[in-house]
Amino acid sequence: MHPISSSALLLALAATLHPLAALAEKPTPAASREIEYLIEHLKASDCQFMRNGTWYEPGKAAAHLRQKYDYLLKKDLVATAEEFIARAGTESSISSKPYQVRCGSSATQPSGAWLTSELAAYRKTATGSR
């Protein structure tokens, strides 16, 4: 048996960790449009967004989601609108408290459910389905 050099050991370790990086993908143009739609739709809505116990107006909520999206893009951690919702739009990454949305006089609902519903409506409109 041959002794393993420290550089060979480091290469072997890097090879085992590298496949995780290979799993990361960038959003397709269609996924980017969907994510941008969700952020802009929230910004233009009459919905308030609860984050860590405080209600925020739509513009501030959208800016917060944009910041989280930009971070995820830099880290190659978001490739689909569903990943965006799960990783940026569902809960605080600091406190793990779930986000909530309330629109007009409608009942408060989890933000993930609201974003998923808005994504489905967008997809129906984008594909011409009714």
Walkthrough of the structure:
Helix 2 runs antiparallel to helix 3 (58-74) and helix 4 (81-88) packs antiparallel against helix 5 (111-127). The protein contains five helices and four strands, in the order ααββααββα. It is of the alpha+beta class. The model is unreliable at 4-22 (pLDDT under 50). It has helices spanning 6-22, 29-44, 58-74, 81-88, 111-127, and strands at 47-51, 54-56, 100-103, 109-110. The longest helix is centred in the first third of the chain and has 17 residues, at 6-22. It is globular, with a radius of gyration of 19 Å. Strands 2-1-3-4 form a four-stranded antiparallel sheet. 58% of the residues lie in helices and 11% in strands.
* Radius of gyration over all CA atoms, rounded: 19 Å
Q: Helix segment count?
A: 5
Q: Helical amount among residues, as a percent range?
A: 55-70%
Mean pLDDT: 86
Largest sheet report: 4 strands, antiparallel
For the termini, the CA-CA separation is: 68 Å
Low-confidence parts = 4-22
> What general form does the structure show?
globular
Strand order of the largest sheet: 2-1-3-4
Our estimate of the beta-strand percent is: 5-15%
Structural class: alpha+beta
Number of strands: 4
What order do the SSEs take from the amino end to the carboxyl end, as H and E?
HHEEHHEEH
How would you sum up this structure in a few lines?
By secondary structure, the chain is an alpha+beta fold.
